Amino acid sequence: DAGVTQSPTHLIKTRGQQVTLRCSPKSGHDTVSWYQQALGQGPQFIFQYYEEEERQRGNFPDRFSGHQFPNYSSELNVNALLLGDSALYLCASSLWDQETQYFGPGTRLLVL
Amino acid sequence: AQSVTQPDIHITVSEGASLELRCNYSYGATPYLFWYVQSPGQGLQLLLKYFSGDTLVQGIKGFEAEFKRSQSSFNLRKPSVHWSDAAEYFCAVGASGTYKYIFGTGTRLKVLA
Fold first, then answer.
1. Cα–Cα distance between B103 and B25 in angstroms, integer?
2. How far apart are the CA of B48 and the nearest CA of chain A, in angstroms?
3. How many residue pairs bridge chain A and chain B with CB atoms within 8 Å of each other?
4. How many CA atoms lie within 13 A of B62 on its CB side?
5. What is the pLDDT of residues A77-112, one digit of tens each?
6. Residue A111 in contact with residue A86, Cβ under 8 Å?
7. Do residues B79 and B18 touch, judged by C-beta distance below 8 A?
8. Scanning A3, A85, B13, B61, which has its CA 20 to 30 A from the CA of B37?
């Protein structure tokens, strides 16, 4: 049973660039959430996607956007990167009506 | 405001000793509570969860947690720590109808041989 997978594992970008991170949910799951984990902090909720729509959003600017595909996989896009966007980006999947989220290994983004 | 507090940033215990990690929450609705563990460079692994019912919940790797509504706490315990338990532990809270988790800042556990 495949768990949540994310790609790439690491990424280095420069300020002002754009980045796309990818996530495949756990088999059977239809809902994907994205979190940002800055160094030394707990994860912070960015948004959640269900049925290809953004269902809920945290306190993140519009530079952060996402997409969910018909196969339930998801992308996180960040435009106009700032140094402060350097973090571990975690994807979590769940079933639409269940509260338990299962996390992937994350993508570590470094913005120079 | 909704929040989760993990008062201990670092904890060091000897292998074989007991462990308790503290978690306090502030949440308007009836909370769902979770403990996750994160090894260096890794994602989060679910240890256990509480939704309702018995306030003492058992998880994987010999961990348990007790929900105390009167104290707004959900402390994680293990009777005998193994060196492989060294990691960072996160408490999180959610609720029915809201899709996001709120995480604490984590407790880093060091285990002495």
1. 10
2. 10
3. 57
4. 11
5. 999 999 999 999 999 999 887 878 999 999 999 999
6. yes
7. yes
8. A85
